[in-house]
Amino acid sequence: MIEVEITDDMMNAARKKAQEMGLLNNSILRSAGSVAGFLGEQVVLSIVGGEWANTYDYDLISDKGNKIDVKTKQTTVKPLPYYAASVANFNTKQMCDYYAFVRVHKNFSTAWYMGAMPKQKYYELSTFMKKGDVDPDNNFKVRADCHNLSYSELKEFDI
Predict the structure, then answer these.
(1) Is residue 158 part of a domain?
(2) Can you give the pLDDT of all 159 residues of the chain as single tens digits?
(3) Is 134 exposed, middle or buried (0-12, 13-18, 19+ CB in 10 A)?
(4) How many angstroms separate the CA atoms of 133 and 94, rounded?
(5) CB-hemisphere CA count at 13 Å for 54?
(6) DSSP 3-state assignment of 124?
(7) Could you tell me which residues come within 8 angstroms of residue 107 by beta carbon, excluding any fewer than 6 positions away?
(8) Considering only CA atoms, which of 50, 40, 31, 33 is closest in space to residue 10?
(9) CA–CA separation, 22 vs 111, rounded Å?
(10) Which domain holds residue 75?
């Protein structure tokens, strides 16, 4: 886990992108999380480098040419290793090489890069959960069908 202070440049880029994007299809938080999502992408860019691609299939292209889809959750506390890295079930067909996971504090001051995993390996290790199921690892009731994996399983891959 890498803690990152959110800079004004990151915040401005995220707000601008959220405004351009408008309401996202299948947004679990009905676009309330758009700024946080784009901040997550900025956090990963600050760590792995690359460019912001912002396609349906992936968000970033790393300096090594890998297509990365960033999955961001908002939080009010520093995340713990047993919290879940989640991918909504409707996103399983995205054509990316890696998933990268970020937690952004709701006050947008701090974020945590939780790690990454190759897409195929993620699905091999993750557990499918139906909307309404309670994750036994953290007692969180899932809001949508998803695949969950504890952050402790992620690595800081050189992606």
Answers:
(1) no
(2) 999 999 999 999 998 988 887 655 455 444 557 899 999 999 999 999 999 998 989 999 999 999 999 999 999 999 999 999 999 998 888 999 999 999 999 999 999 999 999 999 999 999 999 999 998 878 888 889 999 999 999 987 678
(3) exposed
(4) 24
(5) 16
(6) helix
(7) none
(8) 40
(9) 23
(10) 2-153
**85 assigned to some structural domain:** yes
159 located within any domain: no
- 81 — phi, psi (to 5°)? -60, -25
Whose tokens are 């006050």? That residue is 107
The tokens of 35 are what? 């700024």
| Residues 4 and 46 sit within 8 Å (Cβ to Cβ) | yes
Residue 31, strand partner residues: none
Indicate the pTM of the whole model: 0.89
Number of domains in the chain: 1
Residue found under tokens 């202070």: 5
Backbone angles phi, psi at 137, to 5 degrees: -75, -30
In this structure, what CATH number is given to the domain that contains residue 75?
A: 3.40.1350
In a domain, 17, yes or no: yes
